[in-house]
Amino acid sequence: MARVVSDEIRALARLCRLELEEAEIERFSADLSRIVAHIETLAGIEVEGVEPFVGPEAPAAQLRADTPATPLARERALAPVPAHDEEFVLVPRFKDEM
Amino acid sequence: MAAEFVGMGAARLAAAVAEGEVTAAALLEAHLDRISALDGEVRAWRHLDLEGARAQAAAVDAARARGERLGPLAGVPVGLKDIFVVEGMPTQCSSRMLEGWVPGYQGTHAQRMREAGAVLVGKLAMDEFAMGSSNENGPDPSVHNPWDLDFVPGGSSGGSAAAVAARMVPLSLGSDTGGSIRQPASFCGVAGLKPSYGRVSRAGMIAFASSLDQAGPMALEVEDLALALELLAGADPKDASCVDLPVPDLRAACRGELAGMRVGLHRAALGLEGLDAGVRACFEDAIARMREAGAEIVDIELPHFDAAVACYYVLCTAEAASNLARYDGLRFGHRVPDADLEVQYAKSRASGFGDEVKRRIMLGTFVLRADSYEAYYGRAMKVRRKIAEDYTAAFARCDLIASPVSPVAGFRLGERVDDPLAMYLSDVFTVGVNLAGLPALSVPSGFAKVGERELPVGLQLIAPAFEEARLFRAGAAFERLTPALRERVPPLLAKGGA
Fold it and tell me: Is this prediction's ipTM beyond 0.90?
């Protein structure tokens, strides 16, 4: 499947929450087709029985002690939020009244 | 008077401040003069914190006047890639998506630099969300290579490399997910280190691909990288992937010799299509110098070398698609208001992200989709293990591996912007290191012609995980073999600066 057609790009854009313009859909379709064709060269590598490598193994990584600490103050956490009521992040209504 | 210190290394400058040869305040002003003389052309800086930097410099001078013991970087001006969170300083990852975001907390890297006495001058330009190899991705003007302003500085830590090359600061921090420290270091003729995965905390470094990202230093001298890594490394309660291993005396390692080291050479990679003849000649010259200095050159095999770029672009885009899902237009930065939440997400993200970021989110989502997961993401994770095992097998025969950093010495601004695949393929020498979690160094090794122009070329040295000391031993020894390279500065410096 080396060709990523425009309809597929539209479906992907919905999954990515990206509103794309027609010209972008055309361009990404061409770009992704070429990139996916290159990625498909991985199919030629024998991976039967190989364990997936999730990330480099850390020899001495550890979790911090589970002790209470002071969290980021609410006003600091809310400072960069585009819309808030000083208590919560404000979002458009996405659900009807229950 | 302080101008004579501009161009010296970080350790030398810290000593000058400690000895009272120059004040931190004067040192800062001399570097700021250099920035104001040259940055109109280079455009390395996204944000300068003049007030904050002057206050930090004054604090260092006051501490010295009180007879206090100064930190190892006291009074040294340092620049941070815009990917690093600095409390109170705009932090935007060169993206419209984070416009206006001023973090209310301190990142580990800024904190450790501050504790060492460094003066944080400001934020350096980068490709948007660290995605790119040329510093052309994002809403800001492109950075220019100080060696030739028609050329890119490399990326994604292009601002960090250009600022050091133009002697605007002696030390900067960058991040490296697939070569983003080493490639711009090579293009700009500076030294850059990508530490082992887990050596340096990722807390306070905006995530791109979490299993690959590492922060590291860039400087004029290898020994300054060692000093910076000693300060940056070490466990961090805010990052469970950051290991609690002792950090050896890396500056002492810089006094070692190449003699007695076994340097692995993957000859097959030198036949790579697209490897520039000048870059290859530079590399072969570096190998010859190392051999003359007593290193034993050993042939190695990396059977899955050719698969690294494909494997990397599956995994890094998948991780990026997940990491960048947090930019929903709700919690920070850019928002396009709409009455419908779904539409608001899609409009905010579409206008907040640039082309390359969208391309990678789309590709990452594609490889993670239920019907393609096994064929792409699942397979790439298995190929990643084979690539990592290749390095393990190679290191049974050698102490470190040498290779070019990039197949080319550089390219012109605009030359590759319309060909993302060509841009990805040029990461062939660097991405395997990130996939395997290894440390690697780029150290200046010569110059190569690009048309009529001549640009710097770096040598890459790769070590087994947590063996950075070997890189410093070999890298600093190599630096001593090539003193003429240190004499040569970007032509731009002759006409401008302090």
Answer: yes
